[in-house]
Amino acid sequence: MTTQSSDSSTQYIQEWRDWRAGWEQFLTQPHGWLAAASINWVEEDPQHFPGQPGKWWQEGTKLYVDPQGQTMSYDGESFTDVRGFDLSDAPDDTRIIAGDLQIGVTYRDQYLLVNYDPQAPERTEFRGVPTFEPNPGWVLQGRLDRHAAPKPLDFDTVGTDKYTYTSPGVITFTHAGREHTLTPTSSPYGMVVVFTDATSGVTTYGACRSLSVPEPDQDGTVVLDFNRALNLPCAFSGMPVCPVAPAENRLPFAVEAGEKTPHSQQH
Predict the structure, then answer these.
(1) Which residues pair with 155 in a beta bridge?
(2) Which of 166, 192, 244, 263 could bond to 150 as cystine, CB 3.0-4.6 Å?
(3) What's phi and psi for 218, nearest 5 deg?
(4) β partners of residue 57
(5) Nearest to 211 by CA among 199, 201, 225
(6) Is 7 inside a domain boundary?
């Protein structure tokens, strides 16, 4: 290895370590992924969920909550009486605040509530996420071939539900002399690939990992930095609903890069 390439590798690894520190700080926010204490589907009849204040029910696309004497707030407005909100078009995990707790609301024909509690054991007992050692060799170049128009991509979930996202195209890349493809989805922050590989269920979480992919260059070139492959929320506690990697994204080789199975899920 030349001095120049050695310096470049050292710089890459330091940048990766800095990014990891920022990511784990994000994970341990008081109302972040690790604070997910319970997950519940809302029914037509008012229900009280253990550990979560108020009673909750659904009528059509409206979510109703009776705070039962507690002050709650949504979008900066406090309330103590019964309120109904149509959050069917709101972003996933829209928050309703109740004291030290936050209730994340997601609509999938039925409302899904995630109770975020800063005292959740997954957060208070967090010991970091094990990872493979960073290796610049897992930074691969690919090419995005765009669809004429975004296409739907269906996902099963860790559970019984199904999600449909949109895909801008197909990414083609080469690993160990063989060509492979991945189908990304679009997000407000760029493209995301939900994938499995030969490490899944062995040293990494079985359902999937996710990889953010920056927008392509003008010629369609993309960078796949597998050292930044991440677990989704369900990998930590099994409670949040997460997608399972679609058939298009099941790689036949071992991606020994990125996050491993969280400590709390290792047996």
Answers:
(1) 163
(2) 166
(3) -60, -30
(4) 64
(5) 225
(6) no
Whether residues 132 and 260 share a domain: the answer is yes
Q: pLDDT digits over 21-64, tens only?
A: 999 999 999 999 899 999 999 999 999 999 999 999 999 999 99
Query: What does the alpha-carbon distance between residue 250 and residue 83 come to, in Å, rounded to a whole number?
Result: 44
- Determine the Cα–Cα distance for residues 186 and 179; give it in Å rounded to an integer: 23
Q: How many domains does the chain have?
A: 2
Among the listed ranges 45-54, 159-168, 198-207, which one has the minimum average pLDDT value?
159-168
Distance CA 189, CA 102 (A): 23
Domain enclosing residue 213, as ranges: 127-265
The CB density around residue 59, as the number of other CB atoms within 10 Å, is 9
257, 136: one domain = yes
DSSP 47-64: B--TTS-SEEEEETTEEE
Q: Report how far residue 90's alpha carbon sits from residue 111's, in angstroms, rounded to the nearest whole number.
A: 11
User: Are residue 170 and residue 239 in the same domain, yes or no?
Assistant: yes
Residue 42 within any structural domain of the chain: yes
> What would the pLDDT profile of 106-127 be if each residue is shown by its tens digit?
998 899 999 999 999 999 999 9
Identify residue 14 by its one-letter amino acid code.
Q
For residue 13, count CB atoms less than 10 angstroms from its CB and return exposed for 0-12, middle for 13-18, buried for 19 or more: middle
Establish how many alpha carbons lie within 13 A of residue 138's alpha carbon, considering only the half-sphere containing its beta carbon.
18
